[in-house]
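Exercise 7b. C-alpha cells:
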C-alpha cells in the first residue's frame, strides 16, 4: 500500500471525471490493461495542487473534468504493443487522422515512459458550472495532431481563449504544460520524479504500490 496515492474523487470533492482508459472510448478502442475501475488515481500532492485550481476555476464559473492521472506502467506497455498491431481504422479518424500508429511515439504523443506513471501528471479540461457544458478547446482529448498543440494555428478564438485560461490556472497552481497536448499537465514539484509505478486501478481502497 502506498498512502501517497488516493482516489481523486475522495480526496478532492467537486471534481468530475471520465476515466477514458477504463472504457471503450479511447484511442485503442477498448478498456486498457490496468484500468479495472472508472476512477482517477493521483498523488496527494497533485490533488492538493488541483484543489487550488478548482477554487480558482470556480471563481470564473468553471469546473474541472479529469480524464486521466496516474497510469499503470502496464497500460503504457500495452500502448506500445497496440502501436505495433496492423491498422484496423476503428479509432484513426478521431484520434490520429494524419499520422500512423508508430508515429505517435516519434511525434511525442505517447511515451514508453510516461509522467502519468509517476502519479504527477493529469489530463483534464474545463466545463461551465451553470450548465455542465464542456469548454470548447478546438479538438478532443487524445487527438494526436498539430491542432492539439499549444498555440496551434487555425483554432477558433473562443477555443484558444479557453486553452489559455486552463493553462493560466494550471501554471499558477504549480503545473507545467506539455506543448503538444493542451490537456496534459505535470506537477512541477512532483513527489516521485524517477519512479514509474505499476499497480492497477481497482474499485475500493486497494491501491497497492510496487
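Sequence design result:
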Amino acid at each position: 500500500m502506498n498512502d501517497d496515492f488516493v482516489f481523486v474523487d475522495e480526496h478532492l470533492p467537486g471534481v468530475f471525471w471520465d476515466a477514458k482508459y477504463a472504457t471503450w472510448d479511447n484511442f485503442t478502442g477498448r478498456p486498457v490493461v490496468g484500468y479495472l475501475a472508472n476512477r482517477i488515481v493521483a498523488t496527494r500532492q497533485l490533488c492538493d495542487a488541483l484543489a487550488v485550481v478548482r477554487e480558482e476555476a470556480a471563481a470564473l464559473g468553471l469546473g474541472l473534468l479529469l480524464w486521466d492521472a496516474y497510469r499503470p506502467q502496464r497500460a503504457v506497455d500495452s500502448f506500445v504493443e497496440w502501436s505495433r498491431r496492423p491498422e484496423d481504422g476503428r479509432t484513426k479518424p478521431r484520434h490520429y487522422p494524419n499520422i500512423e500508429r508508430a508515429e505517435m511515439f516519434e511525434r511525442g504523443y505517447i511515451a514508453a515512459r510516461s509522467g502519468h506513471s509517476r502519479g504527477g501528471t493529469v489530463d483534464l479540461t474545463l466545463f461551465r458550472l451553470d450548465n455542465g457544458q464542456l469548454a470548447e478547446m478546438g479538438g478532443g482529448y487524445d487527438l494526436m495532431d498539430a491542432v492539439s498543440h499549444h498555440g496551434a494555428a487555425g483554432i477558433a478564438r473562443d477555443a484558444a481563449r479557453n486553452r489559455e485560461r486552463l493553462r493560466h490556472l494550471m501554471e499558477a497552481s504549480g503545473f507545467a504544460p506539455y506543448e503538444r497536448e493542451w490537456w496534459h499537465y505535470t506537477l512541477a514539484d512532483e513527489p516521485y520524479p524517477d519512479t514509474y509505478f505499476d499497480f492497477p486501478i481497482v474499485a475500493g481502497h486497494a491501491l497497492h504500490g510496487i
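Instructor comment: The helical segments are 8-11, 44-58, 73-83, 92-95, 103-106, 157-172. The chain has one domain: 5-187.
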